[in-house]
Design a protein that fits this description.
This protein is α+β, with helices and mostly antiparallel strands. Helix content is 23%, strand content 26%. A 6-stranded mixed sheet has the order 8-7-9-5-6-10, covered by helices on one side. Strands 1-2 form a two-stranded antiparallel ribbon. Strand 5 and strand 6 form a beta hairpin. The longest helix is centred in the C-terminal third of the chain and has 22 residues.
């Protein structure tokens, strides 16, 4: 479930349990956090279990039937839908599929790009339905064998820390 700081900004929990703001900065240990209704919640209740789950990814064929295109192992309660979609796209491009965009579906309705970073992938268990589109906006038929991906949340957090440090170093160089 999403949770927010006192300013209403959506927060994210790293694998190590630290809470970070949308800007990628650590939230102070004494800062209050709230649920979607504005009720103050305990930090221990916000942290995921850290268990790994397998998410089946299916795409609809031109005849409307779903086809399994892959499996992704995710960190329950941590991995975002954006991370999953980026991993799917990378895997499909590496297997020579001409995919330019991937649209995740929830109850048959496309999820807007603006919500991908705040949606937790484990909320879609056991199956995530997607539409894979080419550059003309037409459905791409995935003909390769199903992919298998493991998303390392720790690796993503480390990469985020590194990019924040590089950005800080660039700002220092400008002074």
């Amino acid at each position: 479930f999403p949770f927010y700081d006192a300013f209403g900004r959506n927060l994210r929990v790293r694998k190590d349990g630290k809470i970070i703001t949308p800007e990628g900065q650590l939230l102070g240990d004494n800062a209050d956090i709230f649920d979607i209704c504005g009720n103050k919640i305990q930090r221990s209740a916000t942290l995921g279990t850290g268990t790994r789950k397998k998410l089946e990814v299916q795409s609809y064929l031109s005849d409307g039937q779903p086809k399994i295109i892959g499996y992704i192992t995710i960190d329950q309660g941590y991995t975002t839908l954006l991370e999953v979609i980026q991993s799917i796209k990378k895997s499909l491009i590496e297997s020579n599929n001409k995919v330019s965009s991937i649209i995740a579906l929830f109850d048959g309705t496309p999820i807007p790009d603006s919500e991908r970073e705040t949606r937790i992938a484990s909320n879609f268990l056991p199956i995530l339905y997607v539409n894979c589109l080419n550059s003309q906006g037409k459905k791409v038929q995935i003909d390769t064998s199903p992919f298998r991906i493991e998303i390392s949340h720790q690796e993503i957090d480390d990469q985020m820390e590194l990019s924040k440090q590089e950005e800080f170093n660039k700002q220092l160089a400008l002074l």
